[in-house]
Amino acid sequence: MPFRWRGYWDFGTGALGDMGCHFMDVPFRALKLGYPTSVECSVGSVYADFFKEAFFDDVCPPSTSIHLKFPSKTGQGKEISFSWYDGGIRPQLPEGCDYQRVFGSKDGGMLFIGTKGILSAEMFGENPVLWPEAKFQHVRVPGAKRALVPGNHQGHQQQFIQACKKGYGSYTSSAFDEAGPLTEIVLMGNLAVRSFLYRESKADGKGFNFPGRQKLLWDGANMKITNFDTSNQFVKRDYRTGW
């Protein structure tokens, strides 16, 4: 089934590649993110027996937590920290949130944690809430700054088809000049996952070393990892010959 293709590295990019664009699009646009400077992750393990970890190189892991760093937008102050969780892993709720409330939806959610407050939302940025609510109860939510896609979630398909028919310069709410860089950020997370899973046999043949389990430094302009060259094999690959 097409949905299950996402779990095989030869055909898909896992839960992150499937759902990342639906969640990461909002902070990507709102914060005007560029290339990340670093990424690190941890990955859920699979065990074949007691204390015997199993490795399935063809498929994506059951869960991941991925942490990216982006440069400060002002050139001063702290970097922007960006975290992704899947496979049932959820972030710790920050101070100021109502712990009795359900955050996100069955599909997931997002949190913007700032210096003056917190913004929570569901997938696509729907149903945003400012926290603490008492502090922001008088804040009005501004209207959309760009035209919304008619037809709700399915409307973007028709929008894309109409743009193809009309030709270059046609309006789409997710143009390639935005979708391309966003996709690179999403796949940067998977670059960390592939590096995390990379293993080398120990000299004595007993077990493995995992040299890719470290913070990876990214040179976005040149599309390469600068501190662990082995990771660069996952940046691109030779595509199989067609039929």
From TrEMBL:
Naturally occurring in which organism (per UniProt): Dyadobacter helix
Start and end residues of each Gfo/Idh/MocA-like oxidoreductase bacterial type C-terminal domain: 5-25
Organism superkingdom: Bacteria
Name of this chain's protein: Gfo/Idh/MocA-like oxidoreductase bacterial type C-terminal domain-containing protein
InterPro entries, A to Z: Gfo/Idh/MocA_oxidrdct_glycsds, Gfo/Idh/MocA_OxRdtase_bact_C
Stored PANTHER family: BCDNA.GH03377, NADH-DEPENDENT DEHYDROGENASE-RELATED
